[in-house]
């Protein structure tokens, strides 16, 4: 991990850095987390690291290690399924509202996001693929006009990054989701809220089945 510069949101930066390391496989399930070592790697004091680890523990990404300290939690596939079921409803709402309220803005901003996503897939970087996917959905949340959507999705995205990273590491040819994203964007840009919601829900539920099946196959 690269050293971080001090900033008002330093705890958030540490949180993102640790989560990215877990999603990319640098930190694997069962691996012990050493606070002092992380602080040294990131080039910061122990306090923001401790605060970020506390947040990750509350989010279920880290668990208590035998004896003392923390370790990376295993993925709970039943929890993942439940999470994606909730995500499907919220994503459907976000895409419907974006189509109803900000179709023109979606048409203007969306193509660049699609290009960035396809570029990330072509480049093969797990972290860039995950970041591009998050950026696409985050723009739709902002265009939905509903200020509760993005905060509601924050916890889900913490676990989603882990699931996506785990699947991308196991699949030689990860599924390209950007054709689906492009269709969802087209519905939003056309102001077709019903289609946008239907496609968004299907996209999330199909993603859940795809990812869970890959993880189950690996665990068998």
Can you summarize this structure?
With 220 residues, this protein is mainly alpha-helical. The protein has helices at 10-23, 35-42, 46-58, 77-101, 103-123, 126-144, 149-170, 178-189, 193-219; strands at 32-33, 62-64, 70-72. It contains nine helices and three strands.
Task: Provide a descriptive summary of the structure in words.
By secondary structure, this protein is mainly alpha-helical. It has 2 domains: 10-72, Arc Repressor Mutant, subunit A, CATH 1.10.10.10; 77-219, GntR ligand-binding domain-like (Four Helix Bundle (Hemerythrin (Met), subunit A), Up-down Bundle), CATH 1.20.120.530. 73% of the residues lie in helices and 4% in strands. It is built from 9 helices and 3 strands. A 3-stranded antiparallel β-sheet has the order 1-3-2. A hairpin with a 5-residue loop joins strand 2 (62-64) and strand 3 (70-72). The mean pLDDT is 89.
- Give me the number of helical elements: 9
- Supply the helix-strand structural class: mainly alpha
Helix content percent band:
over 70%
Instruction: Return the domain count.
Output: 2
Instruction: Please tally the β strands and state the result.
Output: 3
3D shape: globular
The CATH architecture classification of the largest domain is: Up-down Bundle
CATH-defined topology of the largest domain: Four Helix Bundle (Hemerythrin (Met), subunit A)
**What's the CATH H-level superfamily name of the largest domain?**
GntR ligand-binding domain-like
**Average pLDDT, to the nearest integer?**
89
